[in-house]
Amino acid sequence: MAFHSQRFKAFLGRFSVARYSLSPRTSPSSLVSFFSTNKPRSFSSTVLEEEDLPIEIATNSTRVFDESELLQELFELLPVRYKNSSSNSSVPYPLEKPTQIDAGADDFLPVEDKLRGVFLQKLKGKAAIENALTASITKDLELTVDTVGKVVNRGNLGGEAMDAFFTWAVKQPTVPIDLSTYHVILKALGRRKFFDLMLDKLHDMHAKGICPNCETLEIVIDSLVRASRIAKAIDLFEKLEDFGMECGTGCFNVLLQCLCRRRHVGKANSLLNSKREKIEFDSMTYNIVIGGWSKMGRVTEMEKSLKAMVEDGFTADCLTYRYLIEGLGRASQIDNAVRIFKRIENEGCTLDTGVYNAMINNCISVGDFDECMRYYEQMLRLNCLPNNDTYVKLIGAFLKAQKVSDALEMFDAMLHRGIVPTSAGECGACCGGVFAQRFLPK
Predict the structure, then answer these.
(1) Whole-prediction pTM
(2) Which tens digit of pLDDT belongs to each residue from 240-263?
(3) Per-domain residue ranges for the chain?
(4) DSSP calls for 53-109
């Protein structure tokens, strides 16, 4: 390459001198008068007529270059192709050999980036893609399920690319063909809304003798409901036998849970009423719907679902009471929530942390911190241990009300019980103000 560069500079040096040399005796004024004349001049190619040139210039205009010689030398120096005007054929000329990239130049890349980069090459054919993927795995690296998840969940792979990669991955001896491996690709395809490919994977699981479970069904149905494909999700539930599953109580609860989680509680309630004689329900079936109405503060609908629950012979449990108290609090009916809590106490029911958290949250919503602490102390007396949600609610409320000393005291109690907030978790985010108050300079 250096040789060609020097040769090209030498070639340009031949033209660095003016085509017509000027003698030292030539005055600038003579050139100015020559270029400023109004007399029209004719040009032949790029050579001026000698009669219009000064004597010194005209006498030195004897150096003539052969055009074919110049083109040939340019072709040897520059990597170009010359197209003949008389025909459409192109005359190739030798180009420089591309620099070979060292095979280990991309060793600094993570293995998932190497595998994902194969699909940037736009290779054609299944065999070519699989060979390139295999070449990306070195001997000291093993393909794992975690790596497969990083490849399909990150980046911007299309549906066909994700499908081709997973098909190759499950052929590797280090990747087990089991339910957890298929959950990885189902989540990735559902998140990107490649629903047809997601259902194909379900059929593939069934063909290989891998029976889906409730977690598999939740991944698929939640992806459809999140994309507002409610009818498709219900149709999938009706055809569960095609995938080796039964439309039982557990699968039906999964469908209701996905619908209520995405605030399609009305559709979940309609399904519950329509399947009453076809599917056997349990207390969780009704609790899911009651919890959905509770998130929306629909007290009347909660009461209807609770009445249907009792009519079917099920007894309300702590989860039911928790949803009722939360729903009443969202509807600003704090007094009714307190009455339900006292009735539970009088009946001798054992209350869990969720019920106390619901009451604490209701008291926080009206700014009654004395009642908050009363319920908190009652929890401790009854050996009902607080959890992360308890401290998140209390510390967040104290900080919002600028009760820094109370927040610090609650934070110490949380640490004393072995509950350590994480920087990425909800508790860590809520307790950031405590750290700022205690450790940052005023």
Answers:
(1) 0.72
(2) 999 989 899 999 999 999 999 999
(3) 2-89, 112-210
(4) S-HHHHHTTT----HHHHHHHHHHHS---EEPTTSS-EE--PPPPPPPPPTTTTTTS
